[in-house]
Amino acid sequence: MDNSIQRNGTKRQWLENKAIMGTFALMKLLSYRRRNAIMGACLRGILGTTIGYRKRIIDNLNLIYPEMAQMRKTEIADQVLDNAGRTFIENMYPAEFQRQNAGIELWGAGLDDLLEAHADGRPIMFYSGHFGNHEAFRAALFEHGIKIGGMVRRMANPYFYAIHLSLQNPNVVM
Predict the structure, then answer these.
(1) Distance between CA atoms of 62 and 60, rounded to whole angstroms?
(2) 118 vs 112: CA distance, rounded Å
(3) Does residue 1 fall inside a structural domain?
(4) Which of 17, 57, 97, 120 could bond to 77 as cystine, CB 3.0-4.6 Å?
């Protein structure tokens, strides 16, 4: 099986990737908590508006909750954007995310069945929608000795997607 990644993007995508990776490199110079807060603030602020995320969130809220007050929709959009910014930077450094969040507790219905299936060597399949960083769930499972993979939608920027895959899967050839 060929684990190489094709990077046939546009010049604009190449430039976007360079800007994103430069930003992440600068953020890496800061402490974990500081860079997470800054990335959350950036996406909540001008960046979220510039790249269209704020509009997309508000449009979706308008579809689902047409009677909701605009102020409340703006508050929700701010929270979503802040969370997305933090998640982006956390996912760029997954090993550090796991170190910073060691001891994440697993709980809830089905946990005993999950641990039993794992102990018995039976495969387990999760289907998930999520709020927050999907890596938190994976990190919590990893703490219990359970390694999992995931399937996600291909990213639009092939250059950034290649980097993202290599961070999640060390077997991918760049």
Answers:
(1) 5
(2) 10
(3) no
(4) 57
Contact predicate 174/21, CB 8 Å: no
Residue 173 bridge partners (DSSP): 4
In this predicted structure, what is the pLDDT of residue 166? 76
52, part of any domain:
yes
DSSP three-state, residue 68: coil
Question: How many CB atoms are located within 10 Å of the residue 61 CB?
Answer: 18
Mean pLDDT, contiguous 10-residue spans, the chain (174 residues): 61 89 91 94 93 95 97 96 91 84 84 91 79 77 79 81 72 40
- Whole-number Å distance between alpha carbons of 170 and 174: 10
**Which has the closest alpha carbon to 144: 116, 174, 166, 168?**
116
Query: How many residues appear in the chain?
Result: 174
Q: What is the pTM of this model?
A: 0.75
Number of domains making up the chain = 1
pLDDT of residue 43: 93
What gap in Å lies between CA 76 and CA 82, rounded to an integer?
10
Query: What pLDDT sits at residue 168?
Result: 65
Output the CA–CA distances (angstroms, integers) from residue 156 to 14, 16, 82, 163, 165, in the order listed. Answer: 12, 11, 21, 13, 13
Q: Which domain holds residue 101?
A: 11-168
